[in-house]
Amino acid sequence: xxxxxxxxxxxxxxxxxxxxxxxxxxxxxxxxxxxxxxxxxxxxxxxxxxxxxxxxxxxxxxxxxxxxxxxxxxxxxxxxxxxxxxxxxxxxxxxxxxxxxxxxxxxxxxxxxxxxxxxxxxxxxxxxxxxxxxxxxxxxxxxxxxxxxxxxxxxxxxxxxxxxxxxxxxxxxxxxxxxxxxxxxxxxxxxxxxxxxxxxxxxxxxxxxxxxxxxxxxxxxxxxxxxxxxxxxxxxxxxxxxxxxxxxxxxxxxxxxxxxxxxxxxxxxxxxxxxxxxxxxxxxxxxxxxxxxxxxxxxxxxxxxxxxxxxxxxxxxxxxxxxxxxxxxxxxxxxxxxxxxxx
Amino acid sequence: xxxxxxxxxxxxxxxxxxxxxxxxxxxxxxxxxxxxxxxxxxxxxxxxxxxxxxxxxxxxxxxxxxxxxxxxxxxxxxxxxxxxxxxxxxxxxxxxxxxxxxxxxxxxxxxxxxxxxxxxxxxxxxxxxxxxxxxxxxxxxxxxxxxxxxxxxxxxxxxxxxxxxxxxxxxxxxxxxxxxxxxxxxxxxxxxxxxxxxxxxxxxxxxxxxxxxxxxxxxxxxxxxxxxxxxxxxxxxxxxxxxxxxxxxx
Lengths: 343, 250
Hints:
The complex is a heterodimer of chains A (343) and B (250). With 343 residues, chain A is an alpha/beta fold. Chain A has eleven helices and ten strands.
């Protein structure tokens, strides 16, 4: 990689859910701009992301966001070595906006196109946050749409050790937050409420998946919370919201941390990274850091701005594809169920 | 004046290039609905075939809706990306108008029908009128602007006007039977080469706008907005709930 003569500058676009984002990244590690236009205010009205509304907003904002990313980076489009875009997994309508805009740019400039896997992007956020980080390492990707425990063998080479069998961790946070009246988005709201609560007040089950050491299941935990709320209501017992929030969060964190710890032991890993929107959760960060410390593994976690959906991480992942000569054609389509490692 | 036109609002994916009123490329595909995969490669092929230097293109015309939400957005986002890269404006063209523009100098009223699902069509009524003897005296005009309504409602409107009608568009096959019972004025259907969205019609109508209004027919890539004529379902339900609760408050 070091024998490349010049810097590789990539314009990256991300629109897989409800953030319209664009970024300019040099050599996969240096972020010149990272513009994120969030639609969260609109979707809060509906208690979750509405794909049709998200698609409409992406279409309205996509060129402003790209223009701003180039401006803030003080670069021109013709300075770009590649145009990268998330093409899956995610919501198909939103994905298509970024993909179509990127193809329009690539068609008009002749600059090569690189389709990027959204989860590869999240993992790559760690390369930006810690320029010395190199594979191999394990990474737990936790967000509103994904929960993956991944072994990163090399740049762009992944082995999925475990994934959720039902809800994503962030999704479970959203659902529980709605039930206890905290509202959307659930992750940050539960995080905040938990600080006032006792994580051991109520014992919710730690979901296990039979026959699979690394898979996750969060729907059982969610149901346990709902049952607890119903039972309390029927008995006329008032519910302590911070206690419920803290206890639920503890149950989720315990499962995530114990799976991560098992992976570190089994594969003898020296490095462990967090990624995805839920990686911003305070209790999860603390729990992972402590566990890694006990096991003598180095712990990595990007700052919140790189954990949420953003395009800088897409620009980072795209760089490693660029180096390998992996480019996409102008027939690149959105693939909502794209699997990690699939091309 | 060179216009690159993009159409992806319905079953057709297409692109065309019009240079000072001369159509130098018109490439349309109506095959499954894979605009996400077909549209940009088609544009790229046209570019190659014409040895087109995009620097010489003055504007990008695009169907601005109504139509398939996803199709419209594929066309719009592609056009916006290209317009940003080329630093050129966009000429938005109403989809139903551009379908009607396939028919020239018709004495009948022109009524495009696009299948809008949920028992409705995207439609409108258009005519060619004469205000003078010369070629400039013939004008394409809108009788009823594009809208989304049940086919019975547009039929009723047309019957009241007492003139013959030509129907066209992908809403024809799904409305053909209903029209048999509804229509009380003479009517006909456009033939295959005229009856669908076509990139050339988008380009030609954009060119007509430019001759009439000049730069006023253009917007920047950032400003360009689609016209869906329908709210997202969640917005619809949300506003219904709101008006219901307002009603209860009274």
